[in-house]
Amino acid sequence: MWLEITGRCQLECRHCYAESGPAGDHGGMTDTDWRRVIDEAAEAGVKMVQFIGGEPTLHPSLPALIDHTRTRGIEVEVFSNLVHVRLALWEVFAQPGVRLATSYYSTDAAEHAQITKRQTYARTKAQPATAPTLPNPVGMQPPLPAS
Q: From its phi and psi, is residue 48 left (phi > 0), alpha (psi between -120 and 50) or beta?
């Protein structure tokens, strides 16, 4: 199950279905609302929740929502652009039952910038190297064509 917890994102990707970006917000749902959705998902037998956005790592309650999801016996995947991941979040991502996924748009910085409308290639590429050892490899979506 996908939970789109924020419309905020550092990027402005030309293909973003959610039209997320720097001016986006976290929407009208409270942490209590999100926990209720997670509880209902657990009761319905959902086995995996993917936190998406925008950029879910920008949501201040992401660690607590991940913890709540795990306590309900649901596996977690966080789909991040990897532009900037705080050290505390890497520690959350290293917990059992938590995976991290990303889209890597190009091996060419200019093409990456054309897709994301930001000069973030170097930071995106460097983020996994700054992370503690994760028990699961980072899931990668294939690059998108630039045109």
A: beta
